[in-house]
Design a protein that fits this description.
Layout: H1 6-12, H2 17-32, H3 36-43, H4 55-65, H5 71-90, E1 98-102, H6 108-114, E2 119-122, E3 130-131, H7 137-152, H8 156-169, E4 178-184, H9 187-202, E5 208-214, H10 231-238, E6 242-243, H11 246-259, H12 265-272, H13 279-289, H14 301-313, E7 316-317, H15 318-329, H16 337-349, E8 355-358, E9 368-371, H17 373-379, E10 393-396, E11 398-400
Parallel strand pairs: 1-2, 1-4, 3-10, 4-5
Antiparallel strand pairs: 5-6, 7-9, 8-9, 10-11
Helix pairs in contact: 2-3, 2-4, 4-5, 5-10, 6-10, 7-8, 9-11, 9-13, 11-12, 12-13, 14-15
InterPro entries: DUF1835
Protein name: DUF1835 domain-containing protein
Organism: Billgrantia endophytica
């Protein structure tokens, strides 16, 4: 079995029991030798005492450092991972003709490595940016293709062709006995999940529909997405999938209708329910609404956090700003790096910019951002970005207009 460091394990979720036992023995040996670092680690979790340190104490510290409340829980989790991997290798998804649907291609190879053999569909229209309307699929695709072509630089026909692969596949589910949706807790995933649930409710297939819904992973320090996980963790999640039943399908329709509305009360009303059929969806919808302009600054939350980052750490490269956003500032990370770069453009290119950019001859992740005096004034609430920008944007079905030039 491959040995993973603690840092790797807390990113990918895979722990090796023998390695953790070895780490506990090394920690105990170092603490008994009065090594300052080892003693400091022990004192973080065990109060000072007269009794000599035991192996059980070191194991407890290792478990806490890995994100578990006890050595017993760490050991049980590792054993569960091992059992899950064996079950997938022995049986996997071969009991039914299966389609796995994911809002990206990030787990396709990992599923194969884990032992899954079903078909894979990437459905990745990023509803978290750009306009949304409750339209028939062909009209919705064309609306989205126009937007995606505009922000990506690709030809509209190419954007439409890419979208059509995913949308068309949803009309061809009858050959499957099971459809499994793999989604995490952020607004990128949950907005797409809402649409898929809405579609499945409107056109129910004969297949059994199941959901893998992930909000956190034991031992993973900062869970961002399923794509960061090891094959063993996908096998473990497989055992926790749940059937998609009527309340969840109905939630999908309510969420999609609220997301495509041209005003915020439908979403606010839905969020207030707590979305009990899938609480993580309500939290993602609440984060989505935070992209509407704040009353004092006129900024959506991502815009405001970006200005915060550049104020706090700048000047700095765009790629570094994105890293800060994902690791430290964003409460529910959901943006890809290209979406982040697109979102920066109005802040940079406005006649009165909130951000300045230099090193423009370099690739965009290496260009350097600095905040302007105007950007600082906006963050203080002394100016509103809506009075300055000339850019229109969308938050789902809600069109956000600049104040200048609006009749």
């Amino acid at each position: 079995m491959t040995t993973l460091s603690r840092r790797d394990a807390m990113t990918h979720g895979r722990f090796n029991l023998e390695q953790q036992r070895k780490r506990a023995k090394e920690l105990l040996k170092a603490a008994r030798a009065d090594t300052p670092d080892a003693l400091a680690r022990m004192l973080c979790h065990i109060p000072p005492r007269e009794a000599p340190l035991r192996l059980a104490d070191a194991q407890f510290v290792i478990a806490r450092e890995c994100g578990f409340s006890s050595w017993t829980r760490l050991k049980a989790h590792i054993e569960s991972l091992d059992a899950s991997r064996r079950l997938v290798i022995d049986h996997g998804d071969r009991d039914m003709v299966t389609l796995h649907i994911r809002c990206g291609s990030d787990i396709e190879h990992t599923l194969r490595t884990a032992g899954f053999q079903g078909d894979f569909l990437e459905f990745s229209d990023p509803y978290c940016v750009g306009p949304l309307c409750d339209l028939p699929s062909e009209e919705l695709m064309r609306l989205r293709a126009r937007f995606l072509a505009d922000v990506s630089g690709m030809a509209e026909r190419d954007a439409l062709a890419r979208l059509r692969k995913g949308y068309a596949a949803l009309n061809d589910l009858e050959r499957y006995e099971r459809v499994v949706l793999w989604f995490e807790h952020d607004s990128y995933d949950q907005l797409i999940l809402a649409y898929l649930l809405h579609r499945l409710r409107a056109n129910p297939p004969r297949a059994r529909i199941e959901l893998v819904a992930v909000e956190s992973i034991p031992g993973v320090e900062r869970f961002i997405g399923i794509g960061q996980l090891s094959p063993d963790l996908l096998a473990w999640l497989w055992r926790q999938r749940r059937p998609v039943e009527t309340p969840l399908l109905e939630l999908g329709t309510r969420a999609w209708e609220a997301l495509t509305a041209d005003h915020s009360p439908p979403l606010e009303t839905l969020i207030a329910t707590g979305t009990p059929a899938l609480p993580m969806m309500g939290r993602a919808l609440a984060r989505h609404l935070q992209e509407l302009p704040a009353p004092d600054t006129g900024l959506g939350l991502t815009e405001r956090l970006t200005l915060d980052i550049v104020r706090d750490h700048g000047p700095l490269p765009v790629g570094k700003a994105f890293s800060y956003l994902m690791r430290e500032y964003e409460p529910l990370p959901y943006l890809g790096d290209l979406m982040f770069w697109w979102l920066l453009q109005p802040l940079i290119s406005a006649p009165q910019p909130a951000l300045e950019i230099s090193d423009t001859q370099r690739e965009w992740p290496h260009r350097r951002l600095a905040i302007t005096e105007l950007g600082r004034a906006i963050l203080k609430g002394q100016r509103s970005w809506l009075d300055i920008t000339t850019n229109e944007r969308w938050v789902g079905g809600i069109r956000v207009f600049p104040r200048k030039g609006r009749g």
